[in-house]
Amino acid sequence: MVKAYRNNPLTDEDKKLNKFLSGIRAHVEHPYAALRRVFHFTRMFVTTIRRVKAMFMCACFNLMRGAYLTRSAA
Residue 12: pLDDT above 80? Predict the structure, then answer.
């Protein structure tokens, strides 16, 4: 991502690059936002039990997301 600085605006190429990267970033960040919203997931600690819990929550999220996508596609 390219940032503009004072007295140095973004070029058209930089704007296109930022637009492209924002689309990718949105797809990557949506699952994390849902984990935080639905499961109150804030951070993942390094202990084994918490990793398993986080993986289980990710699996639950994938099931919820799949159900939503199949319902909206029908």
Answer: yes
